[in-house]
């Protein structure tokens, strides 16, 4: 029996403790199931395919086509010769014929149209990839915010439940004291009214917790009535100090690292290159052509023909179509650059706001922690004094309310530090 107990104890100690659903788990589930992220990934794939298509414009293009045709009565050549006519045999035998063609085209000179098109497609693909990364970071922050809100609602619910339990015990004590005529019956009524208010607050906290879970589950693509056991946030997110870098350094990191800023820059460059490609259409477009044709017939001396040549096209007048399209693209490029400048200013403000929020929350943590300790002691002393008739009922009830407020403030401060750090990471583009 001793050996069996030893084996069971060893197995229990060797079994890892269940950690619960972590923030990393939530991020993984969200990125696997979010429809919006799937859409931006598809757009990124489309951008890469567009870039490959643009690069292929430099290479030869081979076209093959053919046909089979049948006449109701095959025609023939008829030439007047003197006073009579010469009629050739029918062009095709059996009233049907086959025709095939192979054509190779290679651009020789496009005035920079192809090069600009490739650069435009490259920047567009880069912009689509950056948009995907930016969306992923936005999604991670949205999931993290929902995760923190669930933790916040859970702590508020536990605090409300603790208050209900404490007031229930206090009301029971007062009832005993009323029966022994140690205190007035009015104290019991006040305790029960306060307990009823606390029970209502607990119900509201329970509802907020359920709603927070529903919103969190929706982001993860899970059933909204799922009740996961969330793990606490990593310790580094609730660090007791600001980031080592200064505020100016963080702003500079944001200017370099924010994907949405880089995405707008890529869009501006892509539109500028499109304008250059459009302007290049004004120049002659020169290409090399090689052609092979097969025409089944019984009149010509050969059925196979081949040729090699150089062709060009030059639009001399189009009523300003090319110029206006290029101007429209140039204006759109300037607009994207101006949007980037505006976003850069807003990003600097976003970084500053997140940094200030973290600093404020960090300053609140020790204050609220000390307030919790003092509120606990205040409640203990108040109940002792009330028990010996040296304090009124109001002292105890006020102490209970102060303790609940202190606990809530401390929970909010700790979670605000974590959420502020997450928002700061997103603001500098490193989430």
Task: Give a written overview of the molecule.
The chain is α+β, with helices and mostly antiparallel strands and 431 residues long. It has a single domain, classed as Up-down Bundle (Outer membrane efflux proteins (OEP)). It has 9 helices and 6 strands. A hairpin with an 8-residue loop joins strand 5 and strand 6. Helix 4 runs antiparallel to helix 9, helix 6 packs across helix 8 and helix 7 runs antiparallel to helix 8. The longest helix is centred in the middle third of the chain and has 67 residues.
Task: Walk me through the topology.
Elements: H1 2-14, H2 23-33, H3 35-55, E1 61-70, E2 76-81, E3 84-90, E4 96-109, H4 113-179, H5 185-220, H6 247-257, H7 259-280, E5 285-295, E6 304-313, H8 321-387, H9 393-427
Antiparallel strand pairs: 1-4, 2-3, 4-5, 5-6
Helix pairs in contact: 2-4, 3-4, 4-5, 4-7, 4-9, 6-8, 7-8, 8-9
- In CATH terms, the superfamily is Outer membrane efflux proteins (OEP)
Terminal-residue CA separation = 54 Å
Radius of gyration (CA) equals: 39 Å
Backbone shape: elongated
Q: What CATH first level would be assigned?
A: Mainly Alpha
- What is the correct CATH architecture? Up-down Bundle
Overall pLDDT score: 88
Task: Estimate the helix proportion, in percent.
Answer: 55-70%
DSSP summary, beta strand count: 6
* Strand and helix order: HHHEEEEHHHHEEHH
- Walk across the major sheet and give the strand order: 1-4-5-6
Q: Total domains, how many?
A: 1
Determine the structural class based on helices, strands and strand pairing.
alpha+beta
Helix count from the secondary structure assignment: 9
What is the fold-level CATH name, i.e. the topology? Outer membrane efflux proteins (OEP)
Identify low-pLDDT runs. 1-18
Q: How large is the share of residues in beta strands?
A: 5-15%
**Describe the biggest sheet?**
4 strands, antiparallel
